[in-house]
Description:
This protein has 382 residues and is of the alpha/beta class. It has helices spanning 2-16, 55-63, 71-77, 91-96, 134-140, 213-216, 219-229, 272-286, 303-319, 331-339, 367-377, and strands at 22-30, 33-38, 44-49, 106-114, 117-133, 155-167, 170-178, 197-200, 236-242, 253-258, 265-266, 291-294, 323-327, 348-356, 359-366.
Amino acid sequence: ILRCLVGSEMCIRDSYYMAIHVSELNIDTYRGIKSLRLENFSSVNIITGDNNCGKTSVLELLRSLRNPSDFRVWRELIRRDSTNVMEGISYYEGFCDLFDIDEEEKYIKYGVEYENEKHEIIISGEVSEDELLSTEYMKLQGFSIGGRRKEQDYTLNVKKIQMNIHLDGAKASESDVYEGQIRYVPKGASKNDRSNIIYISPSRHTTSYVYLNAVLDNSNMYEQMLDVLKEYDEDIISINYDNLNSGRPGRGVYKILSKSHQKALPLNMYGDGMKKAVLLMSAAIAAKDGILLIDEFETAIHTSAMDRTFAWVIDMCKRLNVQVFLTSHSKEAIDKLLKCSPENTSSMAVYTLSKRDNRTVVRRLDGKTAIEVQDNMGLELR
């Protein structure tokens, strides 16, 4: 009898418990978002809507929760096309893009309930000019000044943005960023990130960067992953880390051994579908006890492989206490995600963002309701 009771309790806990680390996010202003209130987050949250409605911006603010008072975290949120050094675009433009472009006053303000604690973050920016010696400015631009003599120095008026971060009403950090600056080391940077938050961009898989170390150390997870990866290569035998020919420690590559080839092939020689699947599955494990953010989660995954891949990721996140946030504008991908793991549908929610009267508004549906209104009433979830 005792064994049955314990077994039943474990079944109930395993069936219904999933992580909710962030319960709400209230955005006063950030990039193009104004007055957006996202409440009652679930364990798996699908964020959808038209282009430029703010889906990626929501993920960025969630990503900042690692340490919102550290400018290094905000530096990571600068979108890559804003800091193309080859085109001479600097951190100055990248940081300015974090603010609402239509407002003269530059500030970011949002509140969050995270791990049952509420916090408010405000970042203000003030644009002005400052006098710099030419040698100082050249260093900021990434140039080597070599043996330049002092008499060759001259003064420049350079535009800058002075930024301050306030956390819960108290000033937490400050930073000055100059126009043309491509080298950036924030003052007083903290190395104490508080949270395990992993962000996967739509193109991350193209770099072949994965989180396989945790998987290779767990035989059970490893075998399960290989079984799912048969959707992409039915002859797959193993994945191993090869550091023998790299010449430098830590610079090896992951190789896949398959019956289809005589030798193991580097992961980057496989198609985008295989690389994206390995990335998502390994990231789910690496995010243990934290948050997994996936932007455009369906990118590169063929529809025929979505069911098993998504179901594995969702189930693994449940087992490892991981809260998931995903963005998509694909009707088919959202439908497959909602239905891929029926036992977990009740732990899902769909947030549809849209613009209205210069504000961002949201409609929330729990997973079961989303399926019902989509299938039976023809409601568009996107």
